[in-house]
Design brief:
Layout: H1 2-10, H2 12-29, H3 39-49, H4 53-59, H5 68-79, H6 85-106, H7 112-123, H8 126-132, H9 138-157, H10 162-176, H11 180-199, H12 204-228, H13 243-250, H14 261-284, H15 294-315, H16 328-341, H17 345-367, H18 375-385, E1 390-393, H19 397-406, E2 413-416, E3 427-433, E4 448-456, E5 459-466
Parallel strand pairs: 1-2, 1-3
Antiparallel strand pairs: 3-5, 4-5
């Protein structure tokens, strides 16, 4: 028994890492099929399902984001063309799990306590878990941003490792072509670190400048395409920065609730503010800005991204909380190092675990409910109850067609409401999406009479009959 206790004590952080990763992986899979894909996800899936590359590029013509995620998703879909909805949902989950395993590998040389904290935070991050179950680019965005920051940290400590430098360049270009905020992330990182090392007359500034230059030149084709078209205008639905934006951004780190407000908001924020106070005191002290450590610079990069994009969003709104998911690894690098070095690190470590558990209690209770537009149930109802060839929708009938194909139902032809069509059937179903739509409604004329409506989350299906 004594030997076992000593063994557990000796390998407690390795055991903690294993448990954290196991639980993190479990929650990335848990209830994956609990609800339908929603409209933004279906946009990505439909585009990536198109067989013809010409149609693929035409469909993405007005998308303000780079196309690499769509291309990778297309490859995943076409590996198994008969794959259904759950197969497609596995794509971001696998990326998120791969993220954890890559970080486990890249941090193997770190101090044990710091490594445990970093991987623990990633494993239990509400933002990482949420977007692991959403078929959009954010899981891949987080995977690349976290890999880049760990590789960058390693390279700055060992400039002789040119393989990591080349890998950094490749990953920087890749993340830039995943999402606009991927480019903002690497641009901000390299810009601030280049300035810092240039002022210090540190030769690392040369390598960072070259890294940023290569990334920028590689991204120029998309910048020209972005500026020459109307892609930026499609972000007009985003609201200017407000309190909701920053509260929802906080929920990427800790899930908040009224029940556990003190433990999930006030305590973590106070602890973080204490770390910020000490950092500010250090900057204003004897060593000044030039005495900062790498982890402290990472935090400043995250502040820079949030502040600059917030100000820009008052002019042209581009920020949502999910776009700032790229700052998670920057903050986690700072927090994990500071907590591991603190004199009361063991107390803080236990406190962090308890706070995370409280956060997760409400996250689990509120996350695993239906809150997305229910295209799945809507289409299942159509398959069971509707008759005739045509089904009309006031928005994106191609998404209904996707679900019909997954259900192996080929007897319906979804049409956009208002589209000129000769209707010979006696019963008709019309789908209305609550948010969006083309503003059209089905007219009760030529013998058509409304019978009843069936409501689903975010949708309603109205049934009509035509009298003889």
């Amino acid at each position: 028994m004594k030997i076992n206790r000593e063994g557990i004590k000796k390998f407690k952080f390795e055991i903690g890492i294993f448990i954290s990763l196991a639980i993190g992986i479990f929650f990335r899979f848990y209830k994956l099929d609990r609800q339908s894909l929603w409209t933004d996800e279906l946009y990505s899936v439909y585009a990536s399902s198109l067989e013809n590359w010409h149609l693929f590029w035409d469909y993405l013509a007005s998308d303000p984001h780079p196309p690499l995620f769509q291309i990778l998703l297309s490859i995943w879909i076409h590996i198994n063309p008969t794959g259904n909805e759950i197969y497609i949902k596995f794509f971001p989950v696998i990326i998120s799990i791969l993220n954890l395993l890559v970080l486990l590998f890249l941090t193997r040389g770190w101090e044990k306590k710091r490594r445990f904290l970093f991987l623990f935070l990633f494993s239990f991050s509400p933002g990482a878990i949420y977007y692991a179950q959403e078929v959009r680019s954010y899981s891949l965005l987080l995977c690349l941003s976290s890999s880049i920051i760990v590789l960058f940290d390693s390279f700055l400590s060992n400039l002789q490792n040119k393989k990591r430098y080349v890998l950094l360049a490749i990953l920087s270009i890749c993340i830039s072509y995943i999402h606009l905020f991927g480019f903002i992330f690497v641009g901000s990182l390299y810009f601030l670190f280049w300035i810092y090392f240039y002022i210090l007359k540190d030769n690392r500034s040369y390598w960072i400048f070259l890294l940023g230059l290569v990334t920028f030149v590689a991204y120029l084709p998309f910048i020209f395409q972005l500026l020459s078209g109307d892609k930026i205008a499609t972000a007009g639905w985003i609201d200017p920065p407000n309190l909701v934006l920053y509260l929802s951004y906080y929920s990427l780190f800790f899930y908040t609730s009224k029940k556990f407000l003190f433990l999930t908001v006030i305590v973590p924020v106070l602890l973080f503010l204490i770390l910020i106070y000490r950092l500010a005191k250090k900057i204003l002290g004897k060593g000044g800005f030039y005495s900062l450590r790498l982890s402290e610079l990472y935090l400043l990069v995250s502040f820079f991204i949030i502040i600059v994009t917030s100000f820009f969003s008052f002019y042209k709104p581009i920020v949502t909380n999910r776009n700032w998911i790229v700052t998670l690894p920057l903050v986690y690098m700072f927090v994990s190092e500071k907590l591991s070095e603190n004199k009361r690190s063991n107390i803080l470590l236990v406190s962090l675990i308890l706070l995370t558990i409280f956060s997760f209690i409400d996250f689990k209770k509120n996350f695993y409910i239906v809150f997305k537009e229910d295209w799945r149930s809507t289409t299942q109802f159509i398959s069971r109850q509707c008759e005739g060839k045509y089904v009309f929708s006031n928005a994106t009938p191609e998404y209904i067609k996707l679900y019909l194909n997954w259900n192996s139902d080929q007897k319906f032809e979804p049409k956009l409401l208002g589209e000129e069509t000769t209707i010979e059937q006696k019963k008709l179903c019309v789908v209305y999406r609550f948010l969006g739509g083309n503003g059209k409604s089905f007219q009760e004329e030529n013998g058509w009479k409304f019978v009843k409506e069936n409501t689903f989350y975010g949708m309603v299906v109205k049934e009509y009959l035509r009298s003889e």
